[in-house]
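Morning run. Coffee first, then this:
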Amino acid sequence: IVGMGATLPGDLGVGLHIKTSDTGASVNNDGDELVIENGGSGLMTGMTFLSATNGYGGINFGDSGDDNIGIVRYDHNNNSLDFFANATESLVIQSNGTISIPNPGDAGRIDLLGGGADPYMVFRGPGTGTNTKVMFVVDGSEVGTINTTSSSTAYNTSSDYRLKENQVAIS
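And here it is:
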């Protein structure tokens, strides 16, 4: 480990606690390897990652089988925040506020388009067969769906004429 002008042995057996002022809070034992603390009123506590304007900044999560199985990454090429789980891009927050699940390149994704006066959701999927886009579940049981094909949308629900009130004939 090299830092602050000093070279230290590889494993100190302790975590690193950087404190500019005391918050009075206790450190959780499951996350005590690196602690950054600032108890100043109205001040933000944080870290900064500086990357090239065409590069990436991120945090990698690894294990003995994969050194980056999970990633939180900022992509300076398109100004997006990308989340990876099990080594697969799973969620992207784009610079215009659009959230894509799993990612903008996946044909089966969901886009949540925010910002502006007219936010909306887009459900994408294959153009063949019947595809469930929305499923309504109550107490673990499906009670309705919205399905699509390449040319139609069906709203499927349990509608029973015996439950209708104020029925009138249509002329």
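The CA atoms of residues 144 and 157 lie 4 Å apart. Good start to the day.
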